[in-house]
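Example S7 (structure tokens).
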């Protein structure tokens, strides 16, 4: 007759600690992955042009080709952004590699300051990797005071390499679209919300 060996209380406690530690590591790993997923996804889109994500260039293009392309401009604001928003020019015809500047006209129609951030993409989606922006209001958050109106510039060029892409060899019209979304205001600390009362005055 054989008897099974039961772990001693010390061994059982050690095993329990190991399992608990493993669970903690797993949970923190999942949380870290969740927070990292957004910047990693953004980096992936910027490198590949996935989903029509445009590229960001540090300098204007020095290589200008003879082929031309038409770029159209589209503007939208979400319901949480009370701004009028439209392109100054509806479309531009330019050479591949030619650096051009245009602008979007924005006005805050509300009676309070509003901060918003613009998202962007181009269509056809496969053209995103060839569309380069040197300067753009979409790089940072924008704040408009009540009734304020501004022209927000965009400096861009279309990489001549687009003509060598078999999927874009006909150099179709490219549409650049922006949508403004509200930026959440920082939450007011409890102490500040309570008026920052000084305990000494009690």
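Recovered sequence:
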């Amino acid at each position: 007759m054989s008897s099974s060996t039961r772990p001693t209380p010390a061994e059982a406690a050690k095993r329990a600690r190991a399992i608990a530690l493993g669970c903690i590591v797993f949970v923190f790993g999942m949380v870290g992955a969740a927070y990292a997923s957004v910047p990693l996804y953004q980096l992936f889109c910027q490198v590949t042009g996935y989903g029509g994500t445009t590229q960001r260039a540090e300098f204007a293009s020095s290589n200008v080709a003879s082929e031309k392309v038409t770029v159209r401009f589209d503007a939208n604001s979400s319901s949480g952004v009370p701004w009028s928003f439209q392109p100054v020019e509806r479309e531009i015809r330019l050479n591949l590699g030619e650096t051009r500047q245009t602008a979007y006209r924005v006005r805050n129609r509300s009676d309070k300051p509003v901060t918003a951030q613009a998202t962007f993409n181009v269509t056809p989606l496969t053209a995103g990797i060839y569309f380069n922006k040197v300067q753009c209001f979409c790089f940072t958050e924008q704040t408009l005071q009540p009734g304020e109106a501004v022209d927000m510039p965009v400096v861009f060029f279309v990489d001549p390499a687009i003509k060598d892409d078999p999927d874009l060899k006909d150099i179709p019209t490219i549409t650049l679209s922006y949508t403004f979304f509200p930026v959440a205001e920082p939450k007011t600390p409890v102490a500040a919300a309570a008026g920052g009362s000084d305990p000494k005055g009690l």
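Notes on this example. The beta strands are 55-56, 68-77, 83-87, 91-95, 100-108, 114-123, 131-136, 142-144, 149-158, 174-182.
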